[in-house]
Structure formats: structure tokens, C-alpha cells
Amino acid sequence: MSVNSYIASHKERFLNELLELLRIPSVSADPKFKDEVFQAAEFVKSSLESAGVDRAEICATTGYPIVYGEKIIDPSAPTVLVYGHYDVQPADPYELWDSPPFEPIIKPTEEHPEGAIFARGSADDKGQFYMHVKAFEAMLAAGELACNVKFMIEGEEEVGSENLDLFVKGNVDKLKADVVLISDTSMISMETPSVTVGLRGLAYMQVEVTGPNRDLHSGTYGGAVANPINALAKMIASLHDENNRITIPGFYDRVEEYSADYREQLNKAPFDEEDYKRKLAIKEVWGEKGYTTIERVGIRPTLDVNGVWGGYTGEGAKTVLPSKAFAKISMRLVPNQDHKEIARLFEEHLKAIAPPSVTVKVVPHHGGQAAVVPTDSLGYHAAEAAIQEAFGKQAIPTREGGSIPITSLFQQALGLDPILMGFGLDTDAIHSPNEHYGVKNYFMGIETIALFFKHFSKLHKNS
Ligand code: BES
Ligand code: MN
Ligand code: MN
Fold first, then answer.
1. Locate the Peptidase M20 dimerisation domain: which residues (predicted)?
2. Is the CB of 435 under 6 A from ligand 1?
């Protein structure tokens, strides 16, 4: 039986297994779900075992475990290291979901007329890494597995992958491979398949502004004592100038500038701004002057407030001049910017612009470097060939705005090119309410991954 007919004859089970995994609320950020995150790791381990790995293990860390599994068919064959994550983002706010986030249902959408799976983690990343488990099962069952496989599926991607960082550095031999294959990104559309060749880095900060030592009556003290929320709002507003450039001194010093040629190339990717605006219900796009939307997301750095709080936010009105104000602020970084340096510049600047009437504390959360993937490697050519065969189209290289901080470590510590062959769509609402993943994307992904293995082994033989 061929790989494709194996997939076709096990469609229902392949889908049901994913739905089962999606029912486990493996939210790594929220300690309330600790048991469920461990349960998801067990699920991944046994799914690797039933798919046919030689051995699978749960590698404990000081946080959530890394599930490792391998199948060595022939020591002289090339090895593909598959990376993915079984943890998911918190599902809050629950009331904005049309159906419960951990009770997957399938229904059609504008982009997925054939049906999409609605559940937290469906696209990011359970539905995507699970394609690799099923592609592996299908190749093995069809007797067509042409590469060795190593699976490394972690449970802390959504909280910064700190333990994976240590795991990779400490297991360079175990993880020895010829390429890393990752499906945790998007493509332009089913009609226009793409391969991601760039991801942004990240520096994530928390800011705490303190005014008076206790909440005050806003009449008794208002106008005479600085309000930390007012101060924070003003500081935040000053972080962008009139051209929407970030005002932190030194922020752009190392930013890689691209040639006119490269920018033109980048802007050739199909992009319909009217459709983009319509789908987001926005009247105008926004961003750094002098750059297109594709460039603003792909090759320019950003600063965004992710959350801001303080004072009274309950029912009705309470007249209070609060003691404290907080904000979570993230900066997306581009090649050559160092997340630790940016975190330092951010802290120095916030302290410099704070009025003397308040004190500012800055605590860095997590960070990571940007990644750029070369397009002249065997792995990239294998991805192109696989997409050509599955979709009948030439893949477009794209640079995405999201971050997978561990990808740059794969390059540094393992010397491997990560191939970012994802099958999600930007409209899949990852990290948002009503996250979903196309059923067709899931099956096309399984097929394309199997073709990647075939082409990678072929190209390897001929190299
Ligand atoms: N899969 C995403 C990254 C991503 C999203 C890449 C969209 C390309 C397109 C990943 O799970 C993620 O959410 N990463 C975080 C960073 C992490 C350190 C929390 C992100 O980008 O915010
Ligand atoms: Mn992800
Ligand atoms: Mn994510």
C-alpha cells in the first residue's frame, strides 16, 4: 500500500486521534493545568510508540517534559529531527469562544470550506506536530520510510522553551541529524503554498510603575500626587514617534537593512490589503512609515503593549488614585538585534523617561533571537520539491512575524538548518478565541511531510 492510500484509508482515525489530543488542556502558562500538561506528554509518547518508533521516552526537566522518540532505519541514511510543541496558549477569555476550547468541533469557515477543527492548539501546534507522527506512521506502514527520524516534542514553547534550551545544549550527540523539520508556522494559502524563511525574535518585558504607597482617594489627593497609570500611559505613548518608529535610543542600531532588490522580492508575494483589512475589521493598516505590511511584519522590529492594568476595573465606579500601574510589553526583533541588549535598552529608557514623581521597575520575561533560513540547502530544496508534488505549485519563501526562539539555537548548537514548513493560515486565530485548523490542511500536511522525507533522502543520495 502506498503512503497516500494508507493515509486515505486511515483518515478517520488520524483525525480522531488529533481530536483526543486536543481535549487535553495542556496550557503551560497556567499552573492550574499542570497535570494535564504531563498527561499530554504521555499521550505524545504513546502516540509515537504506536506509530512505530524504536523507543520513546519522557525526558524530565525542572519544568514540563520533552518527549523524545526515534526510529533508526539505517545508520547511513539521513536523519530528520522533528520539532514541535504539545503545550498550548491559555484559552482565556473563554466567553469569546463559540464552542468550548477543549471540546473540538469541526465546522466550515470562509478559508476552510471543507471544515476546520475548532480548539485551542488545533493549529498551534498540536494539529501541526501531530501531522508528523501520522506521516511517520504512514511511511513506515507503507515500507517507504527513507530517513531516520528523531522526534523532539516539548511542553514549554509557549512559555519560552528555557528547559529545551538546556536539553538541546546537553544532548548534541543524541540529537545529531541532517535537518530539523518544524511545522509551527503558516503558509499564504492552500492555493499559494509557502515556506517560512524568517522568524522574528522577541524581548518580553513587564513594567511596574509605583506612585504613592497606597491607593488614595482621588478627590482628596487627585491633582497633587502623580497617578502611576497616567504616567505609564504617557510613557507608553512616547515609545513610538510620528512615523511609528520606536524611540528607544539604540533600538535600531543593529537592525539589518535589506537591499531594494530583496524588498522587491519580498513584496512579490501575493497580498490583498483590502481583504486583510476586511478580515480584521480595521479601517486602515498601521505601521512604520516607509514600509509595506509584508515588510512591517517580516523584516521590521516592533513594540506592542500586550496588557495593561491597575486601579479599579470592577463593576461601577470607584474613585481611586491607584498606587501602582502595570504593563506587559513585547518587542519583536529582527536579525542582528540581540534580545538581551534590547531588554537592557528598554529598561534604561523607561527609567530615563519616568517622571520623578513615580518609580519604575522593569522585569524581563523571556526572549529569543530572530532566525533566518537559507534557501540553498538540501532541506529547503526537499521542502520545495515536496510542496511542488503535493500542491502542484512552486513554494514562495516568506518571512513571518511570529517567533520560535529555539530555531536559532538549532542553528547555533546543532549546526542545522531548520525547515519551517507549516500548514496553518494567518486567519486560523492562533492565540485567539476560536483557534482552528483546516481538516484539509491537516491531511495535505501529512502528505507533504511524507514527500519531504522522500525528497530529502533522494537529494541526500545525489549530493
Ligand atoms: N507557532 C508560534 C510562532 C509563530 C506563529 C510563527 C505564527 C509563525 C507564525 C509559537 O507557538 C508562538 O506562539 N511563539 C511565541 C513566542 C514564545 C516565546 C511565547 C510568539 O511568537 O509569540
Ligand atoms: Mn507554536
Ligand atoms: Mn504559539
1. 197-356
2. no
121 lines ligand 1 (CB under 6 A): no
Determine whether the shortest distance from the Cβ of 201 to ligand 1 is under 6 A. Answer: no
Q: Contact at 8 Å (CB) between 332 and 205?
A: no
Packing angle of the helix pair 11-22, 126-141 (nearest 10 deg): 150
CA–CA–CA angle 73, 79, 84 (5° rounding)? 110
Do 53 and 152 belong together in one domain? yes
185 in ligand 1 pocket by Cβ < 6 Å? yes
Confidence bin at 366 (pLDDT 50/70/90): confident
Q: What pLDDT was estimated at residue 1?
A: 87
C-alpha 461 to ligand 2 mean position (Å): 32
Residue 433 and residue 361 in one domain: no
Q: Which atom of ligand 1 is nearest to the CA of 204?
A: 18
Are 301 and 199 in contact, with CB atoms under 8 Å apart? Answer: no
Q: Is the CB of 148 under 6 A from ligand 1?
A: no
Of the pLDDT bands very low, low, confident and very high (cuts 50, 70, 90), residue 460 is: very high
Closest atom of ligand 1 relative to the 186 alpha carbon = 9
Distances (CA, A) of 372 to 75, 196, 201, 380, 405: 29, 9, 10, 12, 12
Does pLDDT of 373 surpass 90? yes
Which domain-ending residue is among 343, 368, 393?
368
- pTM (two decimals): 0.95
